[in-house]
Amino acid sequence: MYYQVSRRKSLAFKIIYLVFSALVExxxxxxxxxxxxxxxxxxxxxxxxxxxxxxxCAILFEGAIMGFIVRSFKLPTILMKNLVFKNDGTPYVTxxxxxxxxxxVAMTMTAVFFVSAYITPFLNISLxxxxxxxxxxxxxxxxxxxxxxxxxxxxHESGSFAII
Length: 164
Fold this sequence. Notes:
Blueprint: H1 2-42, H2 46-74, H3 81-84, H4 93-119, H5 127-154
Helix pairs in contact: 1-2, 1-5, 2-5, 4-5
């Protein structure tokens, strides 16, 4: 019975994580193609090329995370376990503190750039660069949020490597 509840909880966690990751990936791909079309239409500058390469790296990074989540559906994997749990299964407090700080920084940065890009422009940065920073902030923030959720969701099963 306990194994079934843990398995359902693990499956729900992975599905929700995959959905959020897919949404962030879609946003990053949108930014990439928007920048590419702008470059084709207006001519590519060096800054545009750097932005395109950076966005492509962000897309590949988030795609790798999504691939890891999909892989975890077939085979048990430790996913984010080593960030929040020590090898003996006890909580890694430093990891939780660092993850929490990372969430605060990434989501604050994302919110500031979102307001500047979509609501009222107050940053003296190109709009396309602001979109990129929003995408990177979402990638970092969402993945760190799920790392923290993982800790609180699976803290009682922390001694097992096969839970997720």
